[in-house]
Amino acid sequence: MRTQVGIVGAGPAGLMLSHLLARAGIDSVIVEARSRSYVEARIRAGVIENWAADLLAETGVGARMQREGLVHEGIEIGLNGERRRIDFKRLTGRGIMVYGQHEVVKDLIEARLAAGGKIEFEISDTSVHDFDGDAPKIRYKKNGEAREIACDFIAGCDGFHGICRPSIPNGVLTEYDRIYPFGWLGILSQSPPPSHELIYSYTERGFGLYSMRSSSVSRLYLQCAPDEDIEKWPDDRVWKELKARLGPGGDKLLQEGKVLEKGVTAMRSFVVEPMQVGRLYLAGDAAHIVPPTGAKGMNLAIADVLFFSRALAEFYRSGKTALLEGYSKKCLSRVWKAQRFSWWMTSMLHLNPADSPFDRRRQWAELDYVTTSEAASKSLAENYVGLPIA
Ligand code: FAD
Ligand code: DHB
């Protein structure tokens, strides 16, 4: 099979790239290890930055998001139960879209297939070849049969555990890594959220996040150990802790419901530089991971592929390679700002077992400052709704 851009991975990065390329008249094929139903059911991120929601809408894949998604104009930060609001709309003129990542994935798959786009699901043994020249190839197996895609460029959109990044020869990439001494235990529940906006709650018992997918489905998280044993968290214990981390009166605020999903995620910050080698370009989690506290993971994936699609459009239109050559630099400038913000939100809101009493007092002062100072809350707000995309 031959195409212009061979894409590994049908997460938000790979699907959005294929969608943007099709709009620029560029042909692509996506290969995906999992089944369509698996990727459509994988519960992950929930917050879409303002510009990214606009991009989905402007490029024709935002109709359901605009109907079913929730536009939020602020968040609440809890300080041992005292909730203080950060008013994004007043501070930045913008809001955010709360809409599940798996819904974005569903919408993109539907749009690609309806437009005749090619996605090969349930493939195995993926490998990438010859990206140091101008005729790279993706090899894989489908139903046990070996197949090959010959292409001009390979997009490595295969997430943190994919094969594209590890296929780059040793010594080419520099890795920047930070592992946090905590994780999140998350549930999806058939019950209304405690507030109509997200609550990021700092307490002396640890951090809790109260998010949602609709007015009747909540997405709730508890800070836990990075290797927390989920078996030790029957639903009753999860609800008790979630209520406690809302602060006094939390038991009345939080309604229990049927737990639809439960899982533990470890937290890490990770970046590789550069994000491109020859004709292999990494995008999204394949190149960088952020801890989820800043809600940036999916948004960065979408930003990367927007930049890559523009560079490819320029190349196919005019033969110019300037944007392709600048891809990594362009992405990394945004990635590192999101890394800084995600690290900062994570450090400010979680209890770090290594912290001293001095650190705790300083942390409290920071929360107090950020929720009372116009300048500090504006800085949080402009990063949370998404820095301008140029
Ligand atoms: P992915 O969504 O990981 O997509 C990569 C795709 O490549 C997958 O479909 C995978 O099956 C496929 N693939 C992998 N290897 C191969 C192969 N060898 N061949 C073919 N296909 C392959 N962010 C937040 O902001 N908030 C959250 O609450 C949050 N929760 C998360 C929970 C979990 C468990 C994880 C893993 C991530 C979470 N994130 C969260 C981060 C966010 O979901 C990611 O940043 C986002 O999914 C990145 O999109 P992507 O397309 O780059 O990668
Ligand atoms: C959600 C996840 C996040 O990591 C976050 O910061 C906010 C919301 C969510 O899943 O709804």
Which helices and strands appear, and what pairs or packs with what?
Blueprint: E1 5-8, H1 12-23, E2 28-31, H2 36-41, E3 47-48, H3 50-58, H4 63-68, E4 70-72, E5 74-79, E6 82-87, H5 88-92, E7 96-98, H6 101-114, E8 118-120, E9 123-129, E10 137-142, E11 145-150, E12 153-156, E13 174-190, E14 199-202, E15 208-214, E16 217-224, H7 235-244, H8 250-253, E17 258-273, E18 276-277, E19 280-282, E20 288-289, H9 297-318, H10 322-325, H11 327-349, H12 357-372, H13 374-385
Parallel strand pairs: 1-2, 1-12, 2-8, 5-14, 12-19
Antiparallel strand pairs: 3-7, 4-7, 5-6, 9-10, 10-11, 13-16, 13-17, 14-15, 15-16, 17-20, 18-19
The protein binds flavin-adenine dinucleotide (FAD) and 3,4-dihydroxybenzoic acid (DHB).
Write structural notes for this entry.
- It is a single chain.
- This protein is α+β, with helices and mostly antiparallel strands and 390 residues long.
- The chain folds into two domains: 5-46 and 100-173 and 274-345, 3-Layer(bba) Sandwich (FAD/NAD(P)-binding domain); 180-267 and 352-382, D-Amino Acid Oxidase, Chain A, domain 2, CATH 3.30.9.
- It is globular.
- The chain is 37% helix and 29% strand.
- The two termini are 35 Å apart.
- It has helices at 12-23, 36-41, 50-58, 63-68, 88-92, 101-114, 235-244, 250-253, 297-318, 322-325, 327-349, 357-372, 374-385, and strands at residues 5-8, 28-31, 47-48, 70-72, 74-79, 82-87, 96-98, 118-120, 123-129, 137-142, 145-150, 153-156, 174-190, 199-202, 208-214, 217-224, 258-273, 276-277, 280-282, 288-289.
- The mean pLDDT is 98.
- It has 13 helices and 20 strands.
- Strands 6-5-14-15-16-13-17-20 form an eight-stranded mixed β-sheet, with helices on both faces. It has a six-stranded mixed β-sheet with strand order 8-2-1-12-19-18.
- Residues 45-47, 198, 211, 219, 292-293, 295 line the site of 3,4-dihydroxybenzoic acid.
